[in-house]
User: Fold these one by one.
Assistant:
Number 1:
Amino acid sequence: MSLKKLEQLFTDKLIELQQLGIRKGNEKVITGMKAADGDFGARYFLEGYGDRAFLRMNSNSYLGLSVHPQVIKAEAAAAEKFGTGPGAVRFISGTYQPHIELEQKLAEFHGRESAMLFSSAYTTMMGVLPQFISADTLIVSDALNHNCIINAIRLSHPAIKEVYVHADIDALDRILEEYKGRVKRVCLVTDGIFSMRGDYAHLDKVNACCQQHEDGYDEGIITLVDDSHGVGAFGQTGRGTEEYTQGKADILIATLGKAFGVNGGYVVAGSVVIDYLRETSPFYIYSNPITPAEALAASAALDVVTSHEGLRLLEKLRRFSVRLRSGLEELGFETLQGEHPIVPVFIRDTEKTSALVAHLFAQNILVTGLNYPVVPQGEQEIRLQISAEHTDKDLDYLLATLADYKQ
């Protein structure tokens, strides 16, 4: 047997991606980190670039907890005690005390009865959504939902799928009215924070709309929200889009790998729902959990978030996010207003987006350019991401570099 016949097809596809300007190419490899020095935050070294030290404006570690001494100490101590891996799936002696303790803390943090860990937020969505979809279910999805939601819907095989215009409650209302009596159940699935733009789902309005129509469906309407970019980085106390909008999801999915700075994903809901998922979700049953050390590190990160230090970090994050948006607008760049640390810079052209990414890289700034098909045509952008690790001088340098490009 041979792959030779397929390799030519794969080569042609890679060439096509290159010509379209959307091939990701070789990954940049971080080889080390330079700690914050004076008025400037941490810098990172890349393989092949010698002693050039880069300002990282594309990290999901919004609170800087991946390098927090308390979090590092907790993971190191747990690795010494429990080893480097769980050694099995959860139901075959792969459940450790740190897993149980973290699940309890996450449930309490979100005001839910129960929580359940997965190896990542992506696998959480893939493992959770299909378990709520029957042959008589309508799935309703926001047009800008994350790829994990799109693929989870494909895996679910619902009776009907409808996609509403991004954040358009009137469009959602029309869909829910149209399908009354045609299906028994509706599952409304949305991101909390939309990862490409940093805007949010108005969960209060979504809930009000769903409640208005719920009596029209024998098995009701379920709301499922993925707030991976919101939890720990948004809301007065870091409880995400639910806190900010005062709207609660029936089922909430989030990650430990962004604001909490560790690894893994989780779902919180009522105890019956979580018990059901433990018995039915293949991504949980047949896959190893995060390590005990990661669970204890995440628990330590959660302790930081819920402390006075956490409130201070969140306030800094909001202040820097607003400041960067204001600075961009003063320079004539298009962005979206808001408080979330994802700050989009809309370029709306693939070549121009790539050119600005290259300019920033030449000045030792790492950013992420988002081109079609990751974002729709005409919405090409650079996604800047604020971290509590950043300093005022870091933002000054970024904005000065962008100003030079404008000239």
Number 2:
Amino acid sequence: MQELFYAAALSCTVALVLGPLILPVLSKLKFGQSIREEGPQGHYAKAGTPTMGGVIILTALTAASLFFAGGSRELWLVLFVTVGHGVIGFLDDYIKVALKRSLGLKARQKLAGQVLIAAVLAYVATVFFGRGTDLWIPFVGAQVELGFFYYILIFLVLVGTTNAVNLTDGLDGLAAGTGTIASLAYACIAFFFGHAELAVFCMALAGACLGFLRYNAHPARVFMGDTGSLAIGGALAAVAVMTKTELLLVVVGGVFVVEALSVIIQVISFKSTGKRVFRMSPIHHHFELSGWAETKVVKVFWLAGAICALLGLSMMIISRSGGI
């Protein structure tokens, strides 16, 4: 149990120490964030803020995880998924920021990388670890055999979660804060289901996000970029797969789900009717344009994230005690 808190403390410390070392480097290399022209006017002042700060989260997470649970094969698998998505995000950030290509990686290039990572996760989890191809249903505690379709589910969980966290990363401290909360919840879930090493990993992720938040909170001195958001999403998705709680992730990561749904709804509505449901998507921008201060939006979303996490943990406890 102590290792959980030690892992969080170490990763948080590493992130805090790395900040003053990495931020000047990112600034010197001119890895500055570009701002959408159609975005809230208050964001224009953020142009040029160093991005790709996700390397701080990845470094802190990896160091703490390996130090306290480096002998776990499950840990190495989730680290592969996490770092793999971090590399995809880093390449995307580098192309957009350093090479000044606004679109970054092409969609098919991102997809190819995610398919490869999902294939490795699916094979190792189901064959090497004997994870099986069944889906656990919260509340009733039942398991439904999906067979081949489970592999498709793993891909959808990975792609959906990484993109949802990426969409959430639009305000100072929003993704880092909600990522911390979701990671803490999944540390409890992993420990509850007997995956102590994965619980260590989740606590290390929470500590890394919390340490990064020191530099990412409003006014942000650095953004995590796709490097960080894709890695956080990949980490949460991988742990959900390894603990058989894919559906529980939808609840724990409720803020991420709502952010993604707001974009989907906006696109469908505009293309089909020519009208927008929200002032701007993702939905955090809708509240900004409605007159909310950025800090208020972030705090409310943090609170929503905490409620979702508690709801997910409650569902887990009810399910494990025999269902409803």
